[in-house]
């Protein structure tokens, strides 16, 4: 039984994590939230209070913290007897927060791979460049670290494990499909920080096929997917974290990730990229001012959090897993559908933040209850998916399965 | 007989003017070129020398000049015994250069209306806001001022006058069509300074129909034109100087201007405009830097003069004039076709600069010879077009006519 949670970060996903922790503080114990800017934490606490989200009376405190400072993070953990850390800060702080957990024995959860600011799309598998180097140390010290426990990566890893375990003798391919069929009503906007969003799409797209890493580029490989609720949607192969752990754990399967983009998004992206406006390299204006174009584009675009109140429509994220069972081909689609408006009404965030923020809280509850308290470092597909789905069903992200022409709950 | 020319400006059009003046210095006398940045004038002189453009031995000198300074401009005119000024500087200096001409008695030629930096698309007719206020003074002092003597405005005004005089008893409509069917091989570029180019397209589009001013917006009114050499091309109603003088001189005719744009140009323009990247109002980046987005877009786009070496294809600019003759409907298309590559080989500029820069030199030659030395202020359609066409035929921009299914030289 581990208790007392520290949330690191104060963006859109942290807001969802805070609300969901509050709604389950009977299981999770004391709650803390820390980021470099304490006022952003306080705004999240005020929102939790406004929604009366705390299930039982309890602690929820805000702190100022530079999460790159291992000693300061370890001190905050010790001072507050924290046993579970949910890291939803910028991707640049993963390794320092993990070090603080190893030092203090607290369990560690994150939702995305570590990144260094000056590097984009390093060599695959991405986890081997940073996180997995600490795996032996976690095992030695008995520290639980659950990597990539958002929706994708995270829930989609559990979808793959579940489809293979339940329906197959042998897996042949895992295609993860992420569709946002919602509408924010703006001419153009990104669902995350535009700088991070565009950064994700300007590098190499890695995927795993025929037991080797292959490369393509963004928008080069697209296909239409006929999906539950959201209908037919076009998605394009993109680079994504979960491809890198699933390819390691299921090397016999092809592993690909597909992200949905409308023609309008692609057109705007293409215009901005080709003109050079997505560049991180500064240009000099005729008046002699040095400016990074991408930062100007960001300043012109809507703040992603401003989209939430008017966001309508649904997301559909799932895994199409193919394999064989008793010598017969079998095909299973495991998925979730979430609703932007419902997310906003419940926790004040849009659906993209909601799907990313709910799963790490489920993981924290599983660690608190003991089911996922592995005492070492794990990716999500290495853990039993059933208790994860059970909690996700209860806290807002139900899992469904399409198999043999039937659409049903995962446990029906 | 007037002699000795001062060219004001040192951009792409000034380069063409300089070469053409040099090629005709037996008629024009001493040549001078002045701009705020003398080194740009010197680069043009070096190009004139490299092409051995001077027809006869003679003077061609560069000067530093702030053309907003009337006294300095008048002094330069007097010191060098200049009798003809060709103003191809920024549109912001027209009125100060005109004042210097009125003060010294030199003839004045320009190629575009006066603009104030903080005003876009003032009330029609545009010439009445600035230039025409000086008409009586020019007449009183006997100063020749030929307004808008580039291609459009300029040659297209003469095309209209010619079509009406030669072929009609009554004119009903004048549609000016400007097509650049050339290709510069870049993803996107503007043929003039991007800041000025985009400025032209963000305001109201004025046109003259049913004897009154009407308004539309850019890209709202488009149609396909079947044209000589360049074939079928889509053009959109745009605001342009010549509409404002032709509507005044031929109020019984509808007067419209059409500019050719490909879908790609319109798409890029639309994306940039909708995101706010064409705004002249500063935005503040997340890091606190104040930046004007349009200036960053300009810094990212190719320098227009860099397009010239690889520009291929042709321009077609002409007037479709409709009216009646002896009670019968008549329709005449008067036009010119120019070639980007030929322009570059002759004067080191692309075709857009070439068509704008050759006509004011023809106007200067007509003033030097006496034909157009009006002793007052005139728009081009108020002058005899035939000697103008004769010189343009000789110096690189021949005029052709399509009438009754026949395509021929204007004087065939």
Automatic annotation (TrEMBL), chains A, B:
It comes from the Bacteria. Keywords: Oxidoreductase. The keyword Oxidoreductase applies. It is an enzyme of class 1 (oxidoreductase). Residues 150-396 form the Saccharopine dehydrogenase-like C-terminal domain. Residues 5-146 form the Saccharopine dehydrogenase NADP binding domain. GO terms for molecular function: carboxynorspermidine dehydrogenase activity. Pfam families: Sacchrp_dh_C (PF16653), Sacchrp_dh_NADP (PF03435). Its EC number is 1.5.1.43. This is Carboxynorspermidine synthase. It comes from Pseudooceanicola marinus.
């Amino acid at each position: 039984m581990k208790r007392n949670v520290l949330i690191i970060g104060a963006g859109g996903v942290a807001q969802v994590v805070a609300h969901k922790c509050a709604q389950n503080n009977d299981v999770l114990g004391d709650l803390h939230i820390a980021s470099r800017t304490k006022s952003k934490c306080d705004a999240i606490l005020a929102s939790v209070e406004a929604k009366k989200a705390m299930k039982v009376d309890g602690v929820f405190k805000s702190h100022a913290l530079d999460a790159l400072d291992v000693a300061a993070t370890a001190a905050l953990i010790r001072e507050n007897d924290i046993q579970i850390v949910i890291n939803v800060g910028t991707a640049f702080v993963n390794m320092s927060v993990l070090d603080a957990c190893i030092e203090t024995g607290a369990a560690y959860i994150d939702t995305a791979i570590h990144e260094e600011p000056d590097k984009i799309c390093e060599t695959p598998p991405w986890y081997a460049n940073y996180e997995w180097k600490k795996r032996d140390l976690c095992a030695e010290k008995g520290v639980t670290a659950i990597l990539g426990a958002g929706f994708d990566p995270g829930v989609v890893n559990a979808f793959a494990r579940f489809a293979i375990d339940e329906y197959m003798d042998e897996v042949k391919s895992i295609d993860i499909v992420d569709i946002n069929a919602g509408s924010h009503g703006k001419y153009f906007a990104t669902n995350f920080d535009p700088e991070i969003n565009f950064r994700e799409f300007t590098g190499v797209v890695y995927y795993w096929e025929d037991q080797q890493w292959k490369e393509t580029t963004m928008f080069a490989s697209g296909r239409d997917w006929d999906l539950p609720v959201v209908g037919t949607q076009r998605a394009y192969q993109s680079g994504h974290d979960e491809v890198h752990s699933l390819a390691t754990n299921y090397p016999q399967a092809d592993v690909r990730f597909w992200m949905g983009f409308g023609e309008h998004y692609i057109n705007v992206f293409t215009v901005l990229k080709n003109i050079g406006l997505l560049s991180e390299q500064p240009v000099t204006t005729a008046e002699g001012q040095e400016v990074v174009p991408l930062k100007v584009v960001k300043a012109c675009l809507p703040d992603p959090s401003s989209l939430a109140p008017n966001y309508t429509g649904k997301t559909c994220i799932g895994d199409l897993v193919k394999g064989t069972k008793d010598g017969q081909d079998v095909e299973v689609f495991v998925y979730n559908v979430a609703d932007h408006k419902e997310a906003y009404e419940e926790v004040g965030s849009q659906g993209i933040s909601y799907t990313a923020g709910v799963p790490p809280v489920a993981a924290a509850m599983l660690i608190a209850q003991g089911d996922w308290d592995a005492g070492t470092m794990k990716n999500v597909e290495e853990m039993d998916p059933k208790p994860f789905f059970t909690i996700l069903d209860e806290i807002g992200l139900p899992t469904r399965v399409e198999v043999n022409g039937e659409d049903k709950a995962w446990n029906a």
